[in-house]
Write a structure and sequence with these properties.
Largest sheet: 7 strands, mixed
Distance between the termini: 40 Å
Number of helices: 0
Strand content: over 45%
Order of helices and strands: EEEEEEEEEEE
Length: 122
């Protein structure tokens, strides 16, 4: 079973930076995207950024230009560099792996980390 281990969350002041890391244990088969989602209290979980196996990225409008997602395919790891943090970025951030594996049928999978708290406050 694949497990995603997140690290790097914490408390920072507005304008500060954090780097979130996520490393997968176990094998991940097939073609997959990696990404980060977040959920603030009372709100739905939302996409922050994703990166495909080929390196194509998608960012939420709210983080475009401030956050950078990257991946290390050899390590099955994904990072999120967060700069110019705002109080609105406060949330639990979840690592995600989503992909497909071709067997006798196409199997779709979706793995999630346990979440790491990011708090941006004066």
């Amino acid at each position: 079973q694949v497990q995603l281990m997140e690290s790097g969350g914490g408390l920072v002041q507005p304008g500060g930076s954090l780097r979130l890391s996520c490393a997968a244990s176990g094998r991940i088969f097939g073609t997959y995207s990696m990404g980060w989602y977040r959920q603030a209290p009372g709100k739905q979980r939302e996409l922050v950024a994703t990166i495909t196996s080929g390196g194509s990225t998608v960012y939420a409008d709210s983080v475009e230009g401030r956050f950078t997602i990257s991946r290390d395919n050899a390590k099955n790891a994904v990072d999120l560099q967060m700069n110019s943090l705002k109080p609105e970025d406060t949330a639990v951030y979840y690592c995600n792996v989503q992909g497909t594996r071709q067997m006798f049928f196409t199997y779709e999978y979706d793995y999630w980390g346990q979440g790491t708290q990011v708090t941006v406050s004066p």
